[in-house]
């Protein structure tokens, strides 16, 4: 069975073509700068990369380019070879507690939820409609970032705001990066081989979030109503005193939309260091002794450790912490900054393993196992799509 896993943004469309159930990537690629005259279409197959610059008007044209490209490059003989398309959707609200088949009602619902995630859900629907036009006769499945976190209890997902905010406007914690937290917590559980497990996943990329997972079920997560809550990120503040917003809006004479933009795009690593949002640039500066670069990492590391401490208490123990995503997988420096703060929990680092990004980076006498696990959100989407097709006898 061949499944395409799609991850779309407002001006980009990334995909991986999987052979399932073998879980092998046959081809991958992306169309960037959709809507511009110089859109870039990239296709990777058999170790070769084909890149083309051309005007791509919209997501439908991008979807067509991808399918035509796969046929032209003889990855596929025809589009009939594709059995399903899985689409990543950022916000599924309380409506979607599992992946589901795309139909008119589901699309309408994703658009309604778009009010809470305008930068994401509308673009996802563009991509769904694009692929539906190009591949109308096969199942399209939507896989939500929020689903994995739907098992949280009210004490973890509610805010102490007026209750009618929740009832009338859906104000609660949803959590994001769900496919990554699911994949990495499952991998961690395979490694732990425990009957009952308490795991924390630290997804530290440009966006960053933590989740607390008991016996495979998410019980808490650091992102909230939007991805802005939680730990500081590449350009996001993470949690802060909300009183700062109105105070600084007045001081800077900016609107609430402009303030939201500053909190999302000009804060975090970038805001504190005044250098870059990219961890590699910041590490270089930190190693040279750049004070604000060091502070940017330390602020993040402290917050990560704070969450780990609170999840330890909430779960009543901890078997493993797994680091993942761009920084979590590749930065011994950030991991060490975090892990040194966890000595009180009996965490001991194997320095050599940490410096080499090994799978297990805790020493044998550590009370908590520390892993570095490469995430694979696209594979979760492909797995869910295949499972949905099989369970519903669609093929
Ligand atoms: P992601 O959002 O998961 O793609 O992660 C992007 C972040 O990972 C960026 O801040 C990159 O600088 C960071 N990153 C990627 N490779 C490395 C590396 N070798 N060392 C430190 N950070 C890295």
Question: In words, what does this structure look like?
Answer:
It is a single chain. The protein is an alpha/beta fold and 395 residues long. It has 2 domains: 2-144, ATPase, nucleotide binding domain (Nucleotidyltransferase, domain 5, 2-Layer Sandwich); 193-377, Nucleotidyltransferase, domain 5 (2-Layer Sandwich). 40% of the residues lie in helices and 20% in strands. It contains 15 helices and 13 strands. The chain has helices at residues 59-72, 104-113, 121-134, 154-157, 163-169, 178-192, 243-252, 256-265, 268-273, 279-287, 291-315, 325-330, 332-339, 351-355, 377-391; strands spanning 2-8, 13-19, 24-32, 39-45, 48-54, 84-89, 100-101, 140-144, 198-204, 208-214, 217-221, 320-324, 369-372. The strands form 2 sheets. It has an 8-stranded mixed beta sheet, with helices on both faces. The chain has a 5-stranded mixed beta sheet with strand order 11-10-9-12-13, with helices on both faces. A hairpin with a 2-residue loop joins strand 4 (39-45) and strand 5 (48-54). Helix 2 runs antiparallel to helix 3 and helix 11 (291-315) packs across helix 13 (332-339). It is globular and about 60 Å long. The protein binds adenosine monophosphate. Adenosine monophosphate binds at residues 205-206, 234, 278-280, 283, 325-327, 330-331.
């Amino acid at each position: 069975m061949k499944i395409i896993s799609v991850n779309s943004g407002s001006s980009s469309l990334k995909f991986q073509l999987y052979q399932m159930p073998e879980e092998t990537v046959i081809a991958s690629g992306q169309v960037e700068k959709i809507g511009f005259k110089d859109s870039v279409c990239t296709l990777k197959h058999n170790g070769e990369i084909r890149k083309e610059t051309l005007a791509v008007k919209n997501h439908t044209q991008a979807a067509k380019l991808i399918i035509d490209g796969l046929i032209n490059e003889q990855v596929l003989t025809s589009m009939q070879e594709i059995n399903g398309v899985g689409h990543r959707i950022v916000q599924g609200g309380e409506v979607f507690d599992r992946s589901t088949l795309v139909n008119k009602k589901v699309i309408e619902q994703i658009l309604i939820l778009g009010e809470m995630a305008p930068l994401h859900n509308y673009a996802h629907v563009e991509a769904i409609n694009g692929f539906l036009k190009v591949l109308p006769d096969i199942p399209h499945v939507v896989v939500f970032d929020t689903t994995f976190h739907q098992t949280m209890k009210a004490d973890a997902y509610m805010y102490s705001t007026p209750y009618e905010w929740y009832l009338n406007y859906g104000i609660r914690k949803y959590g994001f990066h769900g496919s990554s937290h699911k994949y990495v917590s499952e991998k961690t559980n395979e490694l732990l081989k425990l009957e009952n497990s308490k795991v924390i996943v630290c997804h530290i990329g440009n966006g960053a979030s933590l989740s607390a997972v008991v016996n495979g079920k998410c019980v808490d997560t650091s992102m909230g109503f939007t991805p802005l809550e939680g730990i500081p990120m590449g350009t996001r503040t993470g949690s802060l005193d909300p009183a700062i917003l109105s105070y600084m809006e007045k001081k800077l004479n900016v609107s609430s939309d402009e303030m939201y933009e500053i909190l999302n795009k000009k804060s975090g690593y970038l805001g504190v260091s005044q250098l870059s949002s990219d961890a590699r640039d910041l590490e270089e500066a930190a190693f040279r002794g750049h004070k604000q670069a060091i502070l940017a990492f330390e602020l993040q590391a402290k917050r990560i450790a704070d969450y780990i401490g609170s999840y330890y208490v909430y779960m009543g123990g901890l078997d493993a912490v797994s680091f993942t995503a761009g920084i979590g997988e590749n930065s011994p420096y950030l991991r060490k900054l975090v892990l040194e703060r966890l000595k009180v929990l009996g965490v001991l680092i194997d320095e050599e393993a940490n410096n080499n990004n090994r799978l297990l980076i805790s020493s044998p006498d550590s009370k908590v196992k520390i892993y570095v696990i490469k995430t694979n959100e696209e594979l979760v989407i492909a797995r869910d799509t295949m499972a949905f097709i099989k369970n519903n006898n669609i093929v």
